[in-house]
Design brief:
By secondary structure, this protein is an all-alpha fold. Helices cover 77% and strands 0% of the residues.
Length: 166
Amino acid sequence: MRERPDCCAGQLNEAGRQLFTTYGQHDQSPVLAWLPILLGLLASAIVALAFCPVPRSQTVSGRRVLFLGVAYVVGTVGTGAFVLATCGIIARRRGVAVSLRRTLPRFCDVAAWMTPVVAFYMRDSLWTVSTATVLAVLGSGLIYHYHMAIGEHEMSMARPEPQITR
């Protein structure tokens, strides 16, 4: 059996190290990428279920109904957006960078539609079906656009830098 000189083995090891370093450099966990959206939606759902003002045992005035409705939606959306932004900042430190400017409006749409779905569900209303349909359409749009944003970011990270030669 023929042995290789030590200089060739060292070059192969160095080339192998560079290959594995380059390979693992842009590998991002899909769980880490989707965690901000998932935790934000979970926080919104918990707030929507916990603070749902329906059904009430006593009658309330029109002003009070309007205030409760607005406060309910703002609380649900605000909590979810806060969790989304916080998790997004933490994920960005770990190397997952997705623009909150592009994600936040769609996320707020989904979180805002959670409130009527929960309210109608608590009342055993037939309107639950139509509001849940709107929520599903908005949710699928959020998932699609977030997936595309993650893919766009990964493609830009994987694209090699242009080499300038003279």
